[in-house]
Amino acid sequence: MMGAVRIAPQPEPVKLLHFAALRPLLLDVQPATTSAGKLPQMGAGPRRHARSVQLRSGVATAARKNVILATCCLSLLVISMDLTILNVALPAIHAEFHLHGDHSEQQMQWAINIYPLVLASLLILGGATGDRYGRRRVFQIGLTVFGAASVLCSLAPNVETLIAGRFIQAVGGAMMNPVALSIISQVFPERAERARALGIWGAMSGLSLALGPVVGGVLSQFISWRAVFWINPLICLAALVLTAVYVSESKSATVRDVDVIGQLLLVIGLFGLVFVLVEGPWLGWSNPGIITAGVIATLALLSFPRHQSRRNDPLIDPRFFRSEPFASATAIALLEAAVWGAFLLVMSLYLQSERGYSATRTGLMFLPIAIGLLVVSPLSGRTVGRFGARPPLLVTGLAIITGSVLLMLLTATTPVWLLLVIFAVAGIAFGTVSAPIISTALAGMPLDRAGAAAAVISTNRQIGVSIGIALCAEVAQTAALGDRNFIAAARPLWWLGIAVGLVVAGLAISSTSARAERSAGRLAGLIEGSRGVSAL
Fold this sequence. Notes:
Distance between the termini: 33 Å
CATH class of the largest domain: Mainly Alpha
Radius of gyration: 23 Å
Order of helices and strands: EHHHHHHHEHHHHHHHHHHHH
CATH superfamily of the largest domain: MFS general substrate transporter like domains
Number of domains: 3
Helix content: over 70%
Number of strands: 2
Shape: globular
CATH topology of the largest domain: Growth Hormone, Chain: A
Mean pLDDT: 77
Oligomer: single chain
CATH architecture of the largest domain: Up-down Bundle
Strand order of the largest sheet: 1-2
């Protein structure tokens, strides 16, 4: 008699991330535990701990959730605004510190660039630290460090101290930003409410960036450039109090080991690259120091992916780049952020050095960007949810091209109305990009890897801002020397903007094609397969 045939149970299908759940996700978000109280494990690297994530009161009321969201958005306000708030204050800083000579403009560039550079280098580490030692604890430490560093910046007796203060600010910001987003993901577990909360978070990010030059211009002209740092300690103090009262401690159920070597390679590579771009035009590209820094940076950046591929718990999982949508999204994030960083700095220099505008008038010229971001950011998110990422990414690429072409027409007497049009187009370009690049990056990504993938996108955007600012070195040198060829010195950047717009438009089509979707599906299967093997 033939026995009954046993049919092996089939594995559950891979759960893929739907964009509506995490629409404007910007940084590393650790997912909540599963119904079994554990998270799926990738490889054999991360150590597992049975830690639940709960609010102190058990179930949070809607009011309490909104207070926690507002607290996290306060941290984002100071972090994002400080990316751009110093641009308009540069002439005042230059004058107060009596900076002269070629080296002075290099110092000014480092005062701006050190902040996004350190932020980019430490974002992923900051998120992992919060998961390991407690999100509320790390968030509070970050707020304290950021507030104290802002006080140091406001009291800086020289530009070197200002640069050091900005460095410490970024260390605090790297602890706050990813942890705040993790807190939001835990407090808003339902798909609809999490999408709403993250939509508010994304809008706050764009608005803060656009308001930076406006606030910086008004404060630096009517009070002092030091006043741009006075508001940070007050906001950080308010966030500290609200965190202590409303936010409960939480830790990740999966704790990753700290990749010290990978972190060092990333820092050395990024700092070396930016050093070459900033100092090269001043010292000369054949300078031994520039050549040495370039070689070291290249070796570090080439070694980083090789090192990551050998680890079970890498900072950045190299397998993500096998997904064409993810690889395209990282490229778009880097390129659009580079154009954004260069545009903000060059236009600040143009309005003040070339046009002779006051700090306040310069800041107010940036208002169309803020308005554009406010209008198009929510429209972009809804468009992605309904029609996919391709339409808004195409709008981003075309807007970058249009803005760059208009910038080619700049002269010392360009009509104000045309300048306002240029700033409005910039608001459209950079207001439409956040939602679709996150949607593209997370296409087909397993749920428990979504946070790590989004963290790479956010890191790339900070790297792009640093590179964009560094590319302005020659333009800054022209402005410092009072050369009337300022417009000509900036023109290569606008040609670069046209090229970036074309690349973004091309990637908008290729990254949303059927072929790209298949590559994302293969990545999901690969990650799920490795997880199943490790469990045997």
